[in-house]
Design brief:
There is one protein chain. With 301 residues, the protein is of the alpha/beta class. The chain has twelve helices and eight strands. The protein has helices spanning 15-25, 38-57, 63-72, 79-82, 97-107, 126-130, 164-176, 192-209, 214-225, 231-238, 240-254, 262-269; strands at residues 7-11, 30-34, 73-76, 88-91, 116-119, 139-143, 153-158, 180-185. The chain has an eight-stranded mixed β-sheet with strand order 3-2-1-4-5-6-7-8, with helices on both faces. Strand 4 (88-91), helix 5 and strand 5 form a beta-alpha-beta unit. Helix 2 (38-57) packs antiparallel against helix 3 and helix 8 crosses helix 11 (240-254). The chain is globular and about 60 Å long. The protein starts with 6 loop residues before the first strand and ends in a 32-residue tail after the last helix.
Length: 301
Amino acid sequence: MIDKNQSVVVVGAGLMGTGIAHAFASSGFATRLVDSNGQALEKALQNIHAILDGGVKLGKLAADVAEAAKARLTIHTSLAEGAPGASLLVETVSENLAVKKAVLAEAVPLLLDGALLATNTSALSVTEIAASVPHPERVIGMHFFNPVHKMKLVELVLGIATDAATVALTREWVEAIGKTSILVNESPGLTTSRMSAMLGNEAMWMLQEGTASAEDIDTALRMGFNHPMGPLELGDLTGWDTRLSVLRYLHSTLGEKFRPCPLIIKMVAAGRHGRKTGHGVYQYDAAGQRVPGSGLKASNL
C-alpha cells in the first residue's frame, strides 16, 4: 500500500522530469530530483516553484500547501545522494537505451528493498531496459504526458517480465497523484506516442509540400478536432530532436509509414529544436512565448 511516508526519486531534470517531480511533491511525497547538471536542476526547481506559485495566485492552491510541496522537494547531482531509501524511481533521462540501463543498474542497490523501477520512455523497450537489473519483474513503463501538471493520463507499459503485483502497485501510485492509468503491452511507440509521431510527421510533410502554413495546419487540428495544441506547436514543445529520435526508432521497427520528414532532419541539423532553443517551426522570445507570424512557410524551405 502507498503511504505518504514513502519517498520518490525522479532522475532527469528536463521538461518531463520537472513535471513528474512536481506531481509527486505536490501530492504529499518526499521527492528527490536527480541530474548531473546542476544548472538544469536549479532551472527545474524554479519552474516547479513557479507552477506552485501560479496555483496560489489563481486561487487553486492554498499558500501553505504550496510551501509544503516546495519543502518536500530536494535536488541532487548524484544517485548516491538522491536514491537511498526511495520506494519508487522514475527515470526520464534521454531516449538512449544504454543511458537508461546504466541509471537503473546504479540505482537498484541504493533503493528500498522491493522498490519499483519506472521508465518514462516513449519509444524504447521496457523489456530491454529491465534486463539491466536483478529483478526485471519490478520494472514498468510509466509514461507521463506534457505538461504533466495539466495532463491526467499515464500509460503503464508492460515489459515481458513485469508482474501483476508491480502493475497493481504502480496503479496505486498513479491514483495517489490524481492521474488515470491505462495498460499497454510493450509495442514500439506505445499508443499515444505512435499516433502523435505519425500526426506530427504528416504535419511536417504538409508544411514542406506547401499544403498550408504552419499556423493554419495547427489551427485545423485545434479547431477541427478540438485538440488543445496543433501538431507543429506540440512538436516545438516536445523538441524536434526528441521527435526525430522517436521517428527513427519507429521507422526501423514499424516500417516506411514512419520515415521522418526531411524537414525535421533539416531543422534538427540546424539546431532548431523548438521552444528549448528558441526556434523550431515557430520562433520564441526570451520568455518562451511564441513570436506572432513566425511560423515556417513553404517559401522559407
